Amino acid sequence: MKFSKYLLAMLAGASLAAGFTGCQSEDKFLTEHSYTFNDQTFYTSESDMEMGLNSCYRQIQSLMMGQTHGGHSWMIEGLGLDTYAPTNGNGDFGNWANLNSSNGFTRHWYDNLYTLINRANTVIDMMDERTSITYSSETRKAELRATAVFFRGWAYRVLASMYGNVPILEHHATEIQTGYEPSNRQAVWEFCKQDFTYAAQNLPIKVDKPGQIVRAAADHYLAEINLALGDFNGAVEAATRVLNGTDGDYHVMTTRFGSRASEATDRYGNSLAAPAGAYWDLFREGGNQNSPDNKEAIWVCQFNYNTYSTGGGGDEWWRVQSCTTEANWLCNTVRMNNTRRTLADGTQVYLFGVNTACFADGVVGSAVSTVPDANGRYEANIARDSIGGNVPYIGNIMYPTRYVYNGLWDNSKQGSREDFRGSETMIQKNWYTPGGTRWLEEKAAAYARAAAAVGTPDEENLRITASDTISIFPRLWKFTDDKHPNGDNRAYDCDWYMLRVAETYLIRAEAYLALGDKGKAADDINVLRDRANAPLCSAADINIDYILDERTRELLGEEHRWVTLNRLSVNPNATYISDCHPIQDEQTGNTMYDRVRKYGFGYENLSGSNQVREWSEAEQRYIPNFAPYNYQYPIPIQVIQSNSGVEYPQNHGY
Fold first, then answer.
1. Looking at the 3D structure of the chain, how many domains does it have?
2. DSSP secondary structure letter of residue 382
3. Mean pLDDT over residues 132-155, rounded?
4. Cβ atoms within 10 Å of 138's Cβ, excluding its own
């Protein structure tokens, strides 16, 4: 496996440019100089260390937001697991049999995480070796080193969950090596604990600029790692430092804030009254994620919209101008011209009505034809939002599972309480079609037409099957906006939550469950449920599945779902989950396997011959072909082959 020196060309360019500025004598100009750029000529000052850390921040941006159009960035959030799936049932994460050791998705995170580790290790080593460097203060020096240690710990946290057995590198690589010894997941978690402990002791409490790593982030991840290791008291202690103010002023937002705090309703008339409306504010455009009034954000990944110059987030390289999150989560089937049916008399109709295939009156947009229909409307051929603006569209990736917008909210109402997070305000099930009508009206009309056609020549033509409805789902307001403040033709432009303090409450609740104190676990969960106006839970409700469900209700699309389900799978330290998931191995079953089988997307529109799957007659759906060993990704074959000096065993099942 090759770990070479990773230095940013942009830094080299900046250094060279600085060398050619100012007045120089003829002798100096003619003197031959060496412009070698490596770790011997760089990392010689405090500002150099800061620039080295910038490359680590940049690597996080690339991993989290750089490939949203293709699925790579969604792997950590659990693409294909129990909450959402890709649209291609025969592709990666839809057909798990395709995910092998030669797969590019498999290698993407492995390679990039080790790039991050090497960059962090370079800063750590240079700071430790070069004792003559003068820093603005000893505190600042400790903060810089702790930031690099944090990044290394975060990378190993993800490597442990995705691959399990990986090499632990404590120093930066300067030459090719072919004999890296892999360590098991338990050992990697122990290493993470060391890094997060150090980071939590030395990171700053307050940010100097948006996106900066702070102490609360380290303590949050330390709590999570302690859970994985079975140190439940340590998990409570670390989470409590975040929640009690020791690590700074963080709390769940219960008052309106940010760019649209003055609006009493959304554009559809739904109430945004606090405290529930504060949850809605968390996801609005206009800088809410980094607002100084937002005390819930612990760590926010910065997305640099429509720019190449800063090297920030976005869809990498030429795609940096378009954040595709909105298009990825936006139902588009009924907005396209692919739901036509030919009736027995030869005429063509739209299955869900003309309104679902046409733009609103007077809007041409990107239409199939520039000739309007009899109603003055134009046939739509583009994903279109509910407000008349174009949605930048590069590949529709996400299918939320039925679990997300149906069963998850079965107990959301009780008296005057109704969970805001599952309400029409946050999950718009009755959105407007491009023609201006409500979707549920069009759906009801379509089923009525199908019923009326029974026994006629058009019975089959108007029948609605799973293939017709599989890609029709609610609009999730966590990933889009009902107003685009920068213009309707501009993408949803928001920075990305890596951590909110809401998740810290759920981590501590899990630790209390592990300690047998379900009452305190319920108290922590109820902080979130009370903010959302949801019925409060009791100690009797609490088990690991309830917590996993609550994580979905609160953190859908944000949570690193793969990490969560992996640490709860085949982990002998997770003794507290046996009532829900008693079997924990890589051959017959585990937590991730159980959840995907129960809730995963079945692709009922595909025939059984497309992939080997189990049909559930009771639920009238296919069970995903997720295997117990899929709780880990395979080790990339290139890594195994190039590590010729030491045997690197492949994960079971691959």
1. 1
2. S
3. 98
4. 8
Token pair of 4, please?
């070479």
* Amino acid (one-letter) located at 80: G
Q: For the segment 318-361, what is each residue's pLDDT rounded down to a tens digit? A: 444 556 788 788 776 776 655 788 999 999 888 888 888 777 66
DSSP state, residue 535: P
Closest CA to 586 of 535, 634, 653, 519: 653
pTM listed for this prediction: 0.90
How would DSSP label each residue in 103-118? -HHHHHHHHHHHHHHH
Q: 73 lies in a domain?
A: no
Instruction: Judge whether residue 128 has pLDDT over 50.
Output: yes
DSSP line for 537-576: P-GGG-SHHHHHHHHHHHHTTTS-HHHHHHHTSS-TT-GG
Q: Which domain holds residue 461?
A: 327-476
CA distance 163 to 635: 6
Per-residue pLDDT band for 468 (boundaries 50, 70, 90) equals confident
Give backbone dihedrals phi and psi of 439, rounded to 5 degrees, phi first.
-60, -45
| Residues 547/552/555/559 CA torsion (nearest 10 deg) | 80
Cβ 588 vs Cβ 597: under 8 Å: no
**Is the residue at 340 inside a domain?**
yes
Residue 578, phi then psi, degrees to nearest 5: -65, -25
Token pair for residue 366? 């990107």
236, part of any domain: no
13 in any annotated domain: no
